[in-house]
Amino acid sequence: MSVNRQFRLKQRPVGRVGRADFDLVESPVPEPAEGQAVIRTLYLSLDPTNRVWMTDMPQYLPPVAIGEVMRGGGVGRVVASRRPDLKEGDLVTGLLGWQDYAVAGAPGELFPPTVIPDGLPIPIPSLMGACGMTGLTAYFGLTEIGTPKPGETVVVSAAAGAVGSVVGQIAKIRGCRVVGIAGGAAKCAFITEELGFDAAVDYKAADWKEQLKAATPDGIDVNFENVGGEIMETVVGRMNLYSRMPLCGMISTYNDVQRPRYDLTPFLMKRIRLQGFIVLDFKDRYAEGSIQLAQWLLAGRLKARETVVEGLEGAPEALNMLFDGGNIGKLLVKL
Ligand SMILES: NC(=O)c1ccc[n+]([C@@H]2O[C@H](COP(=O)([O-])OP(=O)(O)OC[C@H]3O[C@@H](n4cnc5c(N)ncnc54)[C@H](OP(=O)(O)O)[C@@H]3O)[C@@H](O)[C@H]2O)c1
């Protein structure tokens, strides 16, 4: 391929993301300057946080500027290099962006790419999901903030998604009763029958609050929160004294213009420990987390699932799958 296609942010989306929010710009494949390397993107990771980066609300990284290549995680192969730490043929992961070719060492780079060791017995999609950033989010958020103990009840929302599916499986490994909240019968069957969750709550069913009550007879000790909104408030209503709530995400609100308001009284009355976190908080421990996740995967104790969409050109529309529930497990774009 001799052309580099790049999605550049044209305007800040209002509501759902649309193709019109981006310019698709074509330019020659870049040549590396001294200290740089050029990476051919193989897979892009689509994440709810992409939607947040498109806004200018206060957040944990700078918003993507208008005219800038859309930021996105990915895995790619080094095709040309003028730096000693990256050699041609290396498989790397990093913020490659929504483009065919990324330049490592370009001005404004937030994090340098990381080399993935050769010959790992794990397919690339799983290295991006269950054993990658979303798996690490599940691992550190649950074990370090949720601190689940054997016999406790753990509830996780967006339970059939990338983070949620791993949270539930780790909680099972830790000896907990695990209840997942997901949209629709197919996803509920996936988490109970394929992943081994103890119960599923279909939040799209009219009686979902009764389902939650029936599934949590002893209340809830850990709520791994991925969704926010009414689901979060209902789960908080069933949390126990001194329970814990890792606040990982609030996907139900990312397309909203108005920030939501919540009643914090239950946190006081029930002394619930609420802690927001970003996986980057644990970056010094990624190796430890990745090794543990990979060991579980290879031992058959952790199942990885991905939804793969073909073609860079479909990335903006594919992002909406996360908000429509169109994915099971990690959502990726294959280039
Ligand atoms: N803190 C961190 O470092 C960090 C890192 C990664 C991800 N996250 C957060 O973790 C959450 C999950 O991310 P992910 O990458 O694993 O995505 P995901 O769960 O694979 O995909 C998102 C899922 O959310 C569900 N969903 C969407 N809108 C919803 C709504 N209004 N109400 C209820 N469920 C809804 C959909 O499943 P259903 O079909 O079940 O509705 C969808 O499949 C997000 O909030 C994300 O921001 C945080």
From TrEMBL:
<dbReference type="InterPro" id="IPR011032">
    <property type="entry name" value="GroES-like_sf"/>
</dbReference>
<protein>
    <submittedName>
        <fullName>NADP-dependent oxidoreductase</fullName>
    </submittedName>
</protein>
<dbReference type="InterPro" id="IPR020843">
    <property type="entry name" value="ER"/>
</dbReference>
<feature type="domain" description="Enoyl reductase (ER)">
    <location>
        <begin position="15"/>
        <end position="333"/>
    </location>
</feature>
<keyword id="KW-0560">Oxidoreductase</keyword>
<dbReference type="InterPro" id="IPR036291">
    <property type="entry name" value="NAD(P)-bd_dom_sf"/>
</dbReference>
<dbReference type="GO" id="GO:0016628">
    <property type="term" value="F:oxidoreductase activity, acting on the CH-CH group of donors, NAD or NADP as acceptor"/>
</dbReference>
<dbReference type="InterPro" id="IPR041694">
    <property type="entry name" value="ADH_N_2"/>
</dbReference>
<dbReference type="Pfam" id="PF00107">
    <property type="entry name" value="ADH_zinc_N"/>
</dbReference>
<dbReference type="InterPro" id="IPR013149">
    <property type="entry name" value="ADH-like_C"/>
</dbReference>
<dbReference type="Pfam" id="PF16884">
    <property type="entry name" value="ADH_N_2"/>
</dbReference>
<dbReference type="InterPro" id="IPR045010">
    <property type="entry name" value="MDR_fam"/>
</dbReference>
